[in-house]
Write a sequence for this structure.
C-alpha cells in the first residue's frame, strides 16, 4: 500500500525542434551575453531576452553554475516560472545538467511555491495547513452555496441571484493581484463615504450626484462581500488560487521571523517571464530577495542623441560620445539662467529608430530621436509667424475627442471652456492645407469635427451632439491616428486650469522643474554658482470632494483664495514626479510638467516638457545665447529612419543639458512609467542592477524576425526597448534568410481551412504530393522531409479551430487539438459525460442520443432514427422511447394492432408495407422476429442504465463510470491499443478518471448530480484541463493549439489563422466589475492596453515558426453577410504594399506568394481520405521510482497497466487510509516544528480534518476504519512521538542520477538527525511488521540510503545513515544500514532494470499477488 503511495509522476524528456536540443551541459555552447548572465556574481541582475534567445537555457545554466561552483546548494536556490510545464521542463533540464542527485529543489510556479510555504507555515496566520485549494469553478459553486450569507442588494437581483457571482469572483481575484485586502478595500470605500457625508455637503457649495452615491453603495456591497467571502473560506478551510499569493504576502509581512528564515535560506532567486508577474507576485519576489539582493529576473515585453551632438561644458563644446561620468556640463536652472552640473550617468545604445532634425530661426540645428524629452513653448497668434495653422485634436472628459484647425492652440481651447486639453498633430502653411488634412484625418479615422460647445447656427446640439460622439469610439480612433502620425497624446500643447463648474471638475497637477521665485540680477553675463535647484508640485481646487480625498490620503493642504492648495518642493526630481503621480492617482487629475527655462522679449516664460515628436514647426524651443536661455521658433522639421549609436546623460539635480545649443531634458528619468511596470519597479528597487540583453535568436530566420520586429514596434512607447533605452532587435543565428511570410486570403473560412490542409499536404512530402495533385513541397533546413508533427495551426481561441479540424480530417491528415480546455471536448470523454448526464436526467435526449450512437452499443443508424421518431411523435424523451421499445419487444404487445391492421408504433411500421393484408401471419411474425433481434443491444443498454440508476445513492460518479467501462467491454479495449490514435483515446480516458478521483478525494459529495454540475460549470468557464499529459511532439500529428498554449514551443511550419478584425485582435472585453483606479497599483500603459496585448500575442505566434510562416484569413465567417476586414497586424508585419496585393491583385497557386482562393469548396473536395494509422514508438525510460521497480518485479503486465497505459482503477480504501495517516502525521510534526506543543487531541483532530471517505464504499466499513485509525494514532502518540526529537525534513522529494539519461526518484516520509552526526530515514507503514521481511536487503530502504549518501542531497557516508520502517499496527520500528557496495550495486541493478523494461513485452507473471491486483478483471492470466 505505502509503496504505491511513494510513486510520483514520470518525467520523460523528449528534446527536438519543438522544445530544446538535448545537449550535454559540458558541450553546450553559450554566446558572450549568455555567458555573462550565467557567470554573473552577486547582486541584482536583469536579463532582457527576446523569443528564441535561449533565456531558459541561461536560467538553467545559471542554476547549474551556482550549484557546481559551491555558491549555493540546490535547496538554497528559488526558481519561479509561470506554468507547470515550464517549471517541469526547467527542473528536468537542471536535473540532467547536474552530475549528481538533488533534493528539495525549489523550482516551481508562483502558486505552487506559495502552496508549499502555506502548508508549512500557514498556521502562523490562522490558516489550516490542510486547506483545500479550490478551482475557479469550485469558488463559484462555493459562493452559490453561501449566497444568502452575503449582505447584497444590487449584486443579488431577485430575478437572477447568481447573475454577478462570476463577476464578483473575478473582482476579488483582481483585487488580490493588486495586493488589496478587504480592510484596505473597506478603508477606500469609507473615504468615499466621508466625501458623501450629508452634513458636510450642506456646508459646502459642491453638489454630489445621485450616481456618485449609488456607485459608493455598490462598492460598499462589494467590500462587505469581499470580507464575508474571506471569512467563510477560513471557516471551512478553503483557499482559492489568488489566496496563495495574498496569504503568503500576509505571512511574510506579519511574521518577520519566518520571512527572515526564507530570506536566509534562498541565497539566490531566479524568475522567468518576469514581465508577466502581477503586482502581488512582484512584491513577493522583491520581498524574498532580502538584504542579499541576489535576484535574477528574465523579462521581455515583447531615447537619445546621435554621437555627433555637441554638449556645452563650462569651457568648450564636447561631442556627447566623449562625455564621461563625473564631467560637468552646462544646464538651465530657470528664468533664463545657466549653471553647471555633474554628469552622474551616461547611456549608450545602438538602435534603428526615427530621428528628427530641427532648425531654428537663428540657424541652430539639433538632431534627436523622436521620443527624446524636450522643452517647448506654444506661441499664441500675437507671437506667431502669421502663416502657421495647426490641425489639432481636442479632448473633453465624458465625450472624447474631436478634430479641428486653428492658428492659436491656447486661444482655441480657451474659447471652448468645456474641453480639457488640446494636442496639435500637424503644422500647415496655409488654411487650405489645414482644411485638407482635417478632412482626410476626420474621415479616415472617424473623428468628429463638431465643437463640444454648441455655437450659433449649429444644427447638432444637445442630445444629438452627444449621440454623435457616442457613435464613434473616438478614444480608440485618436490613438490609432496618433500612432500613425507619431504623436504622443499624453503630452498636450495646452490644458485649461483646474475648475469646478456644476457637476464637472477638472483637476490639474503641475510639476515645475528648477523652480525659482526670484531673479538673480548679479548673475547677468555669467553662470550661476551653486544655485538652489528645487522642483515644485502644486495643485489647486475648490472641489469639496477633492479636499476630502486629499485629507483621507493624508496629503498636507493649505487654504487658497478659492478652496485649497497643495504645494510641495523637492530636491529630487524623481521624488517630485512620484508625488505628482500620487496626486494624479488620488484625484484623477491631468498631469503637466513645466519648466520656466527661457525668455521671450526679456521676460521669462514657461515651456512644457514633451517628446520631440510633438514639437511642430512654428513652436518655440529654448536655445543658449551667451549666458542666457531664450526661445527661438522652429522653422523646419525633417525626419528619417536610420541605425546609429545614441547617447543620453543623467544630470545631477537639474536634469537637463545643452546639446547643439538647444536645452534638452535628459531622458533617462521619466515622470510616468510604461506598461512594463514590473521591470520599472525592479529598476527602482535595484537601481544598480546589472542589465544584460540577449538578442541572438537561435530559432527563426532573419526574414521572420524582421517581420516580427516591424509588428511589435507599433507597441511603442510601451515597450522595454523604449522604456529602458535598449536595442532589442533580434539577430538570427541561422545561416538561411528564410522564405517571405506567405499570406492565404480566401472568400470563406471553409476554403481558408481547406487551403491550409492543402499547403500542409504539399509541404509534407513529394510522395503525397503526387496523390493529392499539389505541386511543390519543401524540406527542412537540414534537408530532411517534414513530418506531420512539424506543422502547427495557431488559433486565437478554441472555438476557432473547428473548420480546420474538419478540413484536416477530410484530407486524412492526422491532427491533435489537445490544448488547455480540450479534455472535456474529446469524443471519448464526451461519451462518458453523456452517460453521466443520462443518469443525472434521463429526459436529456441529447445525451441519450449520443449514448445510443456509441460504437459499442451496436444499434444500426436506421433503428436509432426510428427511436428518435417515436420519441418525437409521442412527446417523450429518447430514453423513455427506448424503454417503451424494449418493453414492447419483450412482451410482443405491439403485434396485435399490427395484425389487426391498425398500424401500431412507428417502430413496427417498417415491418409491413402498404397492403399488408396480403402478407401471411407467419411472414409477419418472421419479420417481427428479425426486428426483435435488433433490440438485444438496446435492451442491454436500457437494463444497464436502470442498474446504474439504482447505484446513484450508493456509489460515486467515478465508480459508476468504472462499472460502465467494465459492463461495455471498453475497459478491455483500452488495454490493447495498437495505434497512436487508440493510445490518445486511452490516455484521455485515464486523465478524465484521474480528474474524477481528485474531485472525489476533495469533496464529500461526489455523486452523479454533484459531478455533472461541476463538469458543466467547468465547461462553461473553459476550465477543462489539458487533454493529455504527453508532449506535443510525442505524436506524429499536425498540432492545433491556441497561441497562449504555444508559448515556449516552436515548429518548423506555422499557420496563424483567422486573421480578421474582431477575431485577431479580438474585441475588448471589459471586466463585469472593474477595480477603481485609485486601487490599481500597477503602472498602466500609455496606449491602447488591449490592442497592445493582442499585438504581443500575435508576435508570440509569429516567433513560433522556424522555417515557414503562413498568415491566413477569409472574407466571410459563419453566416455573416458583411465582409470582414483584414487584421491590422498583417499590414504592420508585412507592409501595406503586400496588403494592397491581397486586396486588389489576387493570385492563386503560386508557391511562396500571396494567395486569394476565391473558388468554392467543390463537391469532390468533400471526399474524405482515411487518416493513416501510425504505429507506436517505444519511448526510452528516463525516470524510475521504487514503486515502479516493485511493480515491474511483481508483474510486468501490472507495470504496463499502471504506468504506461495508466488504466483507471476503482478507488481503494487501503490507499485512502494510508494517505490519511501520512497527511495527519505530517501536519502534526509541522505544528511541532513551528514551535507549538501539540497534544494527543491535536493529533486526533488533524486525523478528523484529513479524513476522506473516498474508496470505502460501505459506511459501516468506513466507520470501522476511522475508529481503527484513531486507535493507531493514540498508540503512536504514546510510543512513537518524542517531543524532544523532531525531524529535520518531512516528505522530502529526491532525484538520483543513475546514468546520464536515467533518474531514480521518490519521496521520504521523515528525516531525523541522531547522535554521532548520523541520520535516520523513517518510512511509515500502516500495517504490521512482517516476520519474513529482511530489512537489510529491502530495496525501498536501499533507495532511501542511496539518496542520503548522494552529494547533492544529504551527502552522508553510508555508515552514518540508518534506514527504518515504522509500523503503526504494532508501534514497532525496524532499522538497518547499507554498505557502499550495496549502494553501488543498487545503481547497477536500477540501470539494468531500466534496460529490461525498455525491451520488455510485458508478459504477466501469475501468482498469489494476482488475487489482490486491481487489474485482475481485465487480465487473462488471472484465474
Amino acid at each position: 500500500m505505502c509503496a504505491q503511495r511513494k510513486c510520483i509522476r514520470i518525467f520523460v524528456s523528449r528534446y527536438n525542434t519543438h522544445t530544446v536540443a538535448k545537449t550535454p551541459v559540458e558541450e553546450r555552447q553559450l554566446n558572450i551575453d549568455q555567458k555573462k548572465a550565467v557567470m554573473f556574481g552577486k547582486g541584482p541582475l536583469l536579463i532582457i531576452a527576446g523569443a528564441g534567445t535561449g533565456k531558459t537555457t541561461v536560467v538553467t545554466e545559471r542554476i547549474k553554475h551556482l550549484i557546481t561552483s559551491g555558491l549555493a546548494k540546490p535547496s538554497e536556490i528559488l526558481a519561479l516560472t509561470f506554468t507547470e510545464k515550464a517549471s517541469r521542463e526547467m527542473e528536468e533540464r537542471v536535473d540532467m545538467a547536474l552530475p549528481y542527485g538533488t533534493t528539495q529543489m525549489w523550482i516551481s510556479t508562483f502558486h505552487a511555491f506559495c502552496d508549499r510555504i502555506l502548508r508549512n507555515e500557514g498556521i502562523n496566520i490562522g490558516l489550516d495547513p490542510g486547506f483545500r485549494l479550490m478551482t475557479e469553478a469550485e469558488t463559484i459553486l462555493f459562493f452559490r452555496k453561501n449566497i444568502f450569507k452575503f449582505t447584497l442588494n444590487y449584486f443579488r437581483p431577485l430575478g437572477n441571484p447568481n447573475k454577478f457571482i462570476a463577476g464578483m469572483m473575478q473582482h476579488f481575484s483582481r483585487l488580490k493581484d493588486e495586493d488589496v485586502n478587504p480592510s484596505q478595500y473597506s478603508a477606500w470605500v469609507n473615504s468615499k463615504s466621508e466625501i458623501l457625508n450629508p452634513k458636510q455637503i450642506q456646508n459646502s457649495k459642491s453638489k454630489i450626484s445621485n450616481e456618485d452615491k449609488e456607485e459608493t453603495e455598490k462598492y460598499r456591497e462589494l467590500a462587505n462581500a469581499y470580507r464575508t467571502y474571506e471569512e467563510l473560506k477560513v471557516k471551512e478551510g478553503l483557499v482559492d488560487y489568488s489566496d496563495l499569493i495574498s496569504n503568503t504576502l500576509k505571512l511574510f509581512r506579519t511574521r518577520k521571523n519566518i520571512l527572515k528564515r526564507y530570506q536566509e535560506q534562498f541565497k539566490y532567486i531566479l524568475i522567468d517571464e518576469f514581465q508577466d508577474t502581477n503586482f502581488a507576485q512582484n512584491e513577493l519576489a522583491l520581498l524574498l530577495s532580502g538584504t542579499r539582493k541576489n535576484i535574477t529576473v528574465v523579462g521581455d515585453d515583447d531615447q537619445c542623441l546621435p554621437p555627433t551632438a555637441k554638449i556645452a561644458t563650462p569651457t568648450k563644446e564636447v561631442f556627447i560620445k566623449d562625455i564621461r561620468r563625473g564631467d560637468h556640463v552646462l544646464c538651465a536652472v530657470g528664468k533664463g539662467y545657466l549653471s553647471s552640473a555633474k554628469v552622474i550617468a551616461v547611456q549608450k545604445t545602438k538602435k534603428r529608430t526615427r530621428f528628427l532634425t530641427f532648425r531654428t530661426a537663428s540657424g541652430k540645428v539639433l538632431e534627436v530621436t523622436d521620443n527624446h524629452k524636450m522643452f517647448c513653448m506654444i506661441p499664441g497668434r500675437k507671437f506667431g509667424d502669421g502663416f502657421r495653422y495647426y490641425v489639432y485634436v481636442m479632448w473633453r472628459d465624458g465625450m472624447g475627442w474631436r478634430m479641428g484647425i486653428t492658428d492659436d492652440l491656447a486661444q482655441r481651447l480657451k474659447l471652448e471652456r468645456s474641453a480639457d486639453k488640446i494636442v496639435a498633430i500637424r503644422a500647415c502653411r496655409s488654411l487650405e492645407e489645414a482644411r485638407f488634412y482635417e478632412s482626410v484625418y476626420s474621415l479616415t479615422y472617424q473623428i468628429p469635427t463638431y465643437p463640444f460647445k454648441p455655437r450659433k447656427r449649429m444644427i447638432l446640439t444637445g442630445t444629438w451632439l452627444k449621440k454623435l460622439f457616442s457613435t464613434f469610439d473616438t478614444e480608440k480612433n485618436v490613438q490609432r491616428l496618433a500612432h500613425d502620425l507619431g504623436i504622443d497624446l499624453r503630452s498636450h500643447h495646452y490644458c485649461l486650469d483646474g475648475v469646478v463648474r456644476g457637476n464637472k471638475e477638472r483637476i490639474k497637477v503641475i510639476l515645475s522643474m528648477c523652480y525659482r521665485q526670484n531673479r538673480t540680477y548679479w548673475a547677468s553675463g555669467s553662470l550661476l554658482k551653486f544655485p538652489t535647484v528645487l522642483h515644485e508640485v502644486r495643485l489647486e481646487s475648490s472641489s469639496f470632494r477633492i479636499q476630502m480625498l486629499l485629507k483621507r490620503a493624508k496629503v498636507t493642504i493649505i487654504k487658497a483664495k478659492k478652496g485649497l492648495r497643495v504645494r510641495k518642493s523637492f530636491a529630487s526630481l524623481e521624488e517630485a514626479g512620484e508625488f505628482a503621480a500620487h496626486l494624479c492617482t488620488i484625484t484623477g487629475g491631468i498631469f503637466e510638467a513645466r519648466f520656466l527655462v527661457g525668455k521671450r522679449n526679456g521676460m521669462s516664460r514657461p515651456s512644457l516638457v514633451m517628446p520631440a515628436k510633438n514639437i511642430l514647426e512654428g513652436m518655440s524651443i529654448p536655445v543658449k545665447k551667451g549666458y542666457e536661455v531664450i526661445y527661438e521658433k522652429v522653422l523646419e522639421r525633417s525626419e528619417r529612419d536610420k541605425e546609429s549609436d545614441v547617447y543620453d546623460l543623467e544630470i545631477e539635480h537639474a536634469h537637463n543639458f545643452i546639446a547643439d545649443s538647444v536645452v534638452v531634458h535628459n531622458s533617462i528619468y521619466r515622470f510616468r512609467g510604461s506598461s512594463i511596470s514590473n521591470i520599472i519597479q525592479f529598476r527602482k528597487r535595484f537601481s544598480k542592477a546589472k542589465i544584460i540583453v540577449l538578442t541572438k535568436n537561435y530559432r527563426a530566420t532573419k526574414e521572420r524576425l524582421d517581420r516580427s520586429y516591424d509588428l511589435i514596434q507599433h507597441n511603442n512607447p510601451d515597450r522595454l526597448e523604449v522604456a529602458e533605452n535598449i536595442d532589442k532587435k533580434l539577430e538570427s543565428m541561422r545561416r538561411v534568410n528564410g522564405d517571405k511570410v506567405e499570406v492565404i486570403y480566401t472568400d470563406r473560412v471553409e476554403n481558408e481551412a481547406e487551403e491550409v490542409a492543402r499547403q500542409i499536404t504539399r509541404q509534407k512530402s513529394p510522395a503525397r504530393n503526387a496523390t493529392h495533385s499539389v505541386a511543390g513541397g519543401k524540406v527542412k533546413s537540414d534537408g530532411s522531409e517534414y513530418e506531420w508533427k512539424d506543422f502547427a495551426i495557431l488559433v486565437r481561441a478554441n472555438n476557432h479551430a473547428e473548420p480546420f479540424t474538419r478540413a484536416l480530417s477530410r484530407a486524412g491528415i492526422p491532427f491533435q487539438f489537445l490544448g488547455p480546455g480540450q479534455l472535456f471536448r474529446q469524443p471519448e470523454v464526451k461519451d462518458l459525460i453523456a452517460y453521466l448526464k443520462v443518469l443525472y436526467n434521463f429526459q436529456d435526449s441529447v445525451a441519450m442520443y449520443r449514448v445510443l450512437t456509441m460504437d459499442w452499443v451496436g444499434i444500426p443508424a436506421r433503428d436509432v432514427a426510428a427511436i428518435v421518431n417515436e420519441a418525437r411523435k409521442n412527446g417523450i424523451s429518447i430514453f423513455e422511447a427506448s424503454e417503451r421499445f424494449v418493453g414492447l419487444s419483450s412482451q410482443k404487445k405491439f403485434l396485435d394492432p399490427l395484425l389487426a391492421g391498425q398500424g401500431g408504433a412507428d417502430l413496427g411500421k417498417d415491418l409491413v408495407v402498404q397492403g399488408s393484408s396480403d402478407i401471411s401471419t407467419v411472414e409477419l411474425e418472421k419479420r417481427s422476429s428479425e426486428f426483435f433481434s435488433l433490440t438485444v443491444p438496446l435492451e442491454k443498454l436500457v437494463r444497464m442504465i436502470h442498474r446504474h440508476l439504482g447505484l446513484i445513492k450508493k456509489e460515486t460518479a467515478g465508480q459508476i463510470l468504472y462499472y460502465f467501462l467494465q459492463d461495455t467491454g471498453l475497459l478491455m479495449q483500452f488495454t490493447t491499443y495498437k495505434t497512436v490514435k487508440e493510445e490518445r483515446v486511452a490516455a484521455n480516458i485515464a486523465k478524465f478518471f484521474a480528474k474524477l478521483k481528485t474531485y472525489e478525494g476533495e469533496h464529500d459529495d461526489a455523486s452523479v448530480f454533484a459531478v455533472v454540475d461541476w463538469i458543466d460549470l467547468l465547461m462553461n468557464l473553459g476550465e477543462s484541463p489539458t487533454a493529455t499529459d504527453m508532449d506535443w511532439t510525442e505524436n506524429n500529428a499536425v498540432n492545433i493549439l491556441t497561441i497562449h498554449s504555444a508559448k515556449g514551443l516552436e515548429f518548423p511550419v506555422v499557420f496563424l489563422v483567422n486573421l480578421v478584425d474582431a477575431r485577431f485582435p479580438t474585441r475588448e472585453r471589459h471586466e463585469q466589475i472593474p477595480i477603481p483606479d485609485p486601487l490599481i497599483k500597477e503602472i498602466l500603459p500609455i496606449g491602447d492596453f488591449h490592442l497592445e496585448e493582442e499585438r504581443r500575442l500575435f508576435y508570440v505566434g509569429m516567433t513560433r515558426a522556424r522555417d515557414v510562416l503562413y498568415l491566413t484569413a477569409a472574407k466571410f465567417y459563419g453566416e455573416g453577410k458583411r465582409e470582414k476586414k483584414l487584421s491590422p497586424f498583417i499590414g504592420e508585419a508585412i507592409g501595406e504594399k503586400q496588403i494592397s496585393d491581397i486586396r486588389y491583385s489576387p493570385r492563386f497557386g503560386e508557391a511562396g506568394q500571396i494567395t486569394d482562393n476565391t473558388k468554392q469548396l467543390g463537391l469532390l473536395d468533400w471526399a474524405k481520405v482515411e487518416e493513416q494509422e501510425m504505429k507506436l514508438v517505444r519511448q526510452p525510460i528516463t525516470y524510475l521510482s521504487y514503486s515502479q521497480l516493485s511493480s515491474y518485479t511483481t508483474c510486468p503486465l501490472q507495470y504496463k497497466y499502471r504506468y504506461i497505459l495508466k488504466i483507471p482503477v476503482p478507488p481503494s480504501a487501503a490507499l485512502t487510509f494510508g494517505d490519511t495517516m501520512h497527511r495527519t502525521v505530517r501536519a502534526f510534526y509541522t505544528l511541532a516544528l513551528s514551535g507549538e506543543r501539540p497534544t494527543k487531541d491535536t493529533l486526533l483532530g488533524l486525523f478528523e480534518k484529513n479524513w476522506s471517505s473516498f474508496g470505502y464504499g460501505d459506511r459501516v466499513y468506513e466507520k470501522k476504519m476511522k475508529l481503527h485509525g484513531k486507535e493507531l494514532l493514540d498508540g503512536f502518540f504514546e510510543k512513537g512521538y518524542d517531543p524532544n526529537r523532531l525531524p529535520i525534513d518531512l516528505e522530502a522529494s529526491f532525484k538520483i542520477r543513475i546514468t546520464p539519461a536515467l533518474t531514480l526518484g521518490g519521496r521520504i516520509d521523515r528525516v531525523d538527525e541522531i547522535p554521532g552526526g548520523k541520520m535516520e530515514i523513517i518510512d511509515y507503514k500502516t500495517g504490521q511488521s512482517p516476520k519474513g521481511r529482511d530489512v537489510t536487503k529491502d530495496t525501498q530502504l536501499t533507495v532511501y540510503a542511496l539518496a542520503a549518501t548522494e552529494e547533492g542531497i544529504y551527502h552522508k557516508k553510508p555508515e552514518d545513515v540508518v534506514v527504518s520502517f515504522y509500523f503503526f499496527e504494532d508501534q514497532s520500528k525496524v532499522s538497518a544500514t547499507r554498505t557502499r557496495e550495496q549502494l553501488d550495486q543498487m545503481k547497477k541493478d536500477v540501470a539494468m532494470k531500466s534496460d529490461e523494461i525498455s525491451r520488455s513485452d510485458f508478459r504477466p507473471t501469475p501468482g498469489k499477488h494476482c488475487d489482490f491486483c486491481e487489474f485482475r478483471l481485465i487480465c487473462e492470466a488471472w484465474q
